[in-house]
Amino acid sequence: MAWLQVKDAATAAPGTKATIKGWVRTRRDSKAGLSFIALHDGTCFDAFQIVAPADLPNYESEVQRLTSGCAVEAEGEIVASQGKGQSVELKATALRVVGWVDDPDTYPISQKRHTFEYLRDVAHLRARTNTFGAVARVRHALAMGVHRFFHERGFYWVHTPIVTASDCEGAGQMFRVSTLDALNPARTPEGGVDFTQDFFGREAHLTVSGQLNVETYCCALSRVYTFGPTFRAENSNTSRHLAEFWMIEPEIAFANLADNADLAEAMLKHLFRMLLEERADDMAFFNDRIDNTVIQTLEHLVETPFERMTYTDAVALLQKSGETFEFPVEWGLDLQSEHERCLTEKLVKKPVVLMNYPKDIKAFYMRMNEDGKTVAAMDVLAPRIGEIIGGSQREERLDMLDKRIDEMKLPKENYWWYRDLRRYGTVPHAGFGLGFERLIQFATGMQNIRDVIPFPRTPGSAEF
RNA sequence: UCCCCGAUAGCUCAAUCGGUAGAGCGAGCGGCUGUUAACCGCUAGGUUGUAGGUUCGAGUCCUACUCGGGGAGCCA
Q1: Which residues of A277-314 are buried (b: 16+ CB within 10 A; e: fewer)?
Q2: What's the CA gap between A262 and A285, in Å, rounded?
Q3: Looking at residue A366, what is its pLDDT?
Q4: A235, closest nucleotide (Cα–C1')
Q5: Banded model confidence at residue A133, pLDDT cuts 50, 70, 90
Q6: Which of A51, A53, A75, A305 lies in the 20 to 30 Å Cα band around A337?
Q7: DSSP one-letter string for A244-267
Q8: pLDDT (tens digit per residue) in A290-324
Q9: Predicted ipTM?
C-alpha cells in the first residue's frame, strides 16, 4: 500500500488506498464507534484526519490510549469527509503504534497553547508545534529561494572558511578557536600566550563574515555569494541577535553601489514572491496568529519600488519631520534604531535603501566617494526590524584603501592578500550581507530571532 | 553590557493591609457526541527560581545571584 505524505493525502482522490505516517496531534473519541486522530508529518501546515473505527482489533487496547506525540502508521482508504474542516480523511483499516509517549503527563508539548519562551526550553520537541513546523518550512523555502535566485543569475556559491586567522572586518568580538590547554597554555618569554604553539600556528577565530574571502572569488568568477554560519561573540541580548547565525553575502564584479542596491531589491522581491506562492499555507497561519499584517507587508514590498535615499537626505528628512527623538539626529552621527524605524514605519512606510554614509562611521573597505566625506555604503532598512541588509561598493583603488587602513590604524600586513586583489587586475565590485534569520523574522512576523533558528545560541545559552 | 519588568501546579495565570495556596487549560478516570480550540462531571497534582535577611508570622517587604521578557548599545 502506497505511503502518502500528508501534503499529498490532503488532495488525494477518494477511493485511494494509502498508508499515512506521522505524529498524533489530537485524538477525539466518539461513542458512535470511532475515534478521530489528527496526524501531522511536517509536510504541510495542516494535520490530516484519520478516522479509526471501533472494530479495529486494537481499538480499545491502543487507539483509545493514543495521546499527543505518539508516532503511528494508519492504513486505509481516502474517503470524502462527513465533517467540516477537511474535504477528505483516511478511513483506517489498520492502525499501528510505532512509538508511544510513555508518560503523557510529562510530554512537554501538551494539547494547549504554549509560550515561545517555554518552548525554547524544549527545543528538541518544539518542531512538532504548528508554529515551529511552519517556521522550519519557511526557513527551508527561503534558503532554497536564495540558492535558486543566485543560480538563475549565474552566481556561484562559494564556501568561505568558518575558521579564520584574521580579524578582518574588526567587526566585534570573535570566538577563539584553539587546542591550547586553557588552564596552562604555552607561554612566550614575555609571559603572553604563545599562539605559535597553537593548532594553526597563530591565533584563530570563528568567522564574523565571509566577505573578504569571497571578494577573492568575485575577482575571478564575477558573481559569487556565500551562505553559511557566522559567529559573533558580542554580549548582545536582544530579539534580533544571535551568537551563531546564517548570513548571505553576494559579491558582484564590474559593479557599483547602484548595481548593488538593485541586486538587493531584486533578491528580496524574488524571495517574498516565491514564499507567498510556495508556502501559502504557512503564511496564512503567520498572518492569522502571529502578525496579521505580514502578508500585506510582503505583497506591498514585492509590488513597490524601494525608496532610495542618501544618508544626507535622510538626516534632513528626520530633522524636519517634527518627531522627537531620544538621540540626536545630526550629520556625521550614526542613525539610531528609533530613527530607522521612524523612516521605514512613519515617513516612507516601505523598505528604504540608505546610501552614502559618512566615512567615519563605516568600515575601511568601503569605497570613498568623490566628496571625500562619504563612502559608497548602503543599508536596507525594513519596517519593524530595522537593518536587514548592510553593504557597500568596495574600495578597489590600492592607494585609497591603504589610506583608509592607515587612518583606522589597522595592521596593513594582515591584509596582504586583500591588498593583492587591488594590485593584480583590480576591478570595481560591490556586495552586501543579509542576516538570514532577520529575513525569516521579517517574512513571518516572528518577534524573537531565537524562534526562527532551530537551536539558538545566545550569551549564556547553548543547550541542545 | 546598561535601564525597566517578571519568576506561584505539567502549561498560562490569580492570591486585597504581611495572616498559612486558587482557577483555567493539560493529565488520569467516568459520561455524551461524525468529532475537529469538542463538551459535562470527578480525581490527582505545590520546598511559591536560588541563597540570605526583616518579622510572632513572608508568595507578598529588603539584599545578592540565576533565568526569562521589553527597550538601548553593538550589528546581520
Answers
A1: ebbeebbebbbeebbeebbebbeebbeeebbebebbeb
A2: 31
A3: 95
A4: B1
A5: very high
A6: A305
A7: EEEEEEEEEES--HHHHHHHHHHH
A8: 998 899 989 989 999 999 999 999 999 999 888 88
A9: 0.89
Angle between helices A294-303 and A436-444 (to 10 degrees): 110
Average pLDDT over residues A242-254: 96
pLDDT digits (tens, 9 = 90+) for A382-425: 877 678 899 999 999 999 999 999 988 888 888 999 999 999 99
State percent of chain A over pLDDT 90: 67
- Residue A349 predicted with pLDDT over 90: no
Grid coordinates of A102: 510513555
Query: How long is the CA A330 to C1' B40 vector, in angstroms?
Result: 66
The set of cell numbers assigned to A269 is: 522581491
The total number of residues shown for chain A amounts to 464
Ramachandran class of A174: left when φ > 0, alpha when ψ lies in -120 to 50, beta otherwise: beta
pLDDT band of residue A228 (cuts 50, 70, 90) is: very high
Q: How far is the CA of A82 from the C1' of B43 (A)?
A: 35
d(CA A341, CA A385): 8
DSSP assignment letter at A3: B
Backbone torsions φ then ψ of A49, nearest 5 degrees: -90, 125
* Per-position b or e across A195-229, b if 16+ CB within 10 A of its CB: beebeeeebbbbbbbbbbbbbbbbbeebbbbbbbe
Q: Å between A106 CA and B51 C1'?
A: 29
Cα radius of gyration rounded to whole Å, chain A: 27
So what's the pLDDT on residue A83? Answer: 84
Band of the pLDDT at A171, cuts 50, 70, 90? low
Burial (Cβ within 10 Å: 0-12, 13-18, ≥19) of residue A252: buried
Chain B bases under 7 Å from protein CB? 1-2, 10-13, 24-28, 32-38, 66-76
**Distance of A420 CA from B18 C1′ (whole Å):** 74
Helices (DSSP H) in A320-463: which residue ranges?
A: 337-341, 398-407, 416-423, 436-444
Residue A337, phi then psi, degrees to nearest 5: -50, -45
Any bridge partners for residue A22, and if so which? A72
Å between CA of A326 and C1' of B5: 21
- Residue A391's nearest nucleotide, by CA–C1', is B76
